[in-house]
Structures are given as C-alpha cells and as structure tokens.
Amino acid sequence: MTLRIIRVGSWLYGGSVDTPVDIVALDYDYWYKLGEADCALEPGETPEPLGQGGFLYYARFRHALETSEPTWPDSPGYSTIAQAVAHAESKVTGGIVWQDAVAA
Predict the structure, then answer these.
(1) The organism sits in which domain of life (predicted)?
(2) Most CB atoms within 10 A, among 21, 66, 95, 100?
(3) Residue 83 and residue 55: Cα distance in Å, rounded?
(4) Which tens digits make up the pLDDT trace of 42-69?
C-alpha cells in the first residue's frame, strides 16, 4: 500500500489563516479497507474500482502534507484527480491555490 501526494494547496481558514490541503493517491479503496478491518462491510459490498494510473484520489485537510500511513482522508475516493480537487474546493470558501507535488 502506497500513499503518494499528487497535489498540494493552501486556502485561508477564516479568511486569514493559511491552511494546507492535499490530494493523495492510494492504490486501494481506503474506506473499503477500513470497513473490512472493522468487520463493518455491507453484504456484497465491494471496493471502488481504481481509476487513473491504478489509484483512487482523496482530499485531505486534517492530515494534509503527512507522508506516512496510516492516514485519514477527508473525502470519498475518486477515480480522477480532477474529481478529488473539485471535492476539496467545494469544502472551502475563497478557493484553493494548487500546485503539483514535487517528487521526492
């Protein structure tokens, strides 16, 4: 299981506090794995199919910029980066300034 930060951004919490957000790529369905670990899956429930590049994309606010797992996403898993970005942008006022993550 691999966590990759794909995009990083910042937004102004309360209109004045610079606050990070990121989009991460996981090679598994985070919420399905959590339900599986908690024995809380619905009968017949299956993981979301992986999207672009074999990943699901998640927005993170609380754990933005953390590079290790386990992590805790703040969104459902999306099959595209654009969908995860749109989700993050829908959660803040004033917009998010994005940049691609720099490879380590």
Answers:
(1) Bacteria
(2) 21
(3) 13
(4) 999 999 999 989 999 999 999 999 998 8
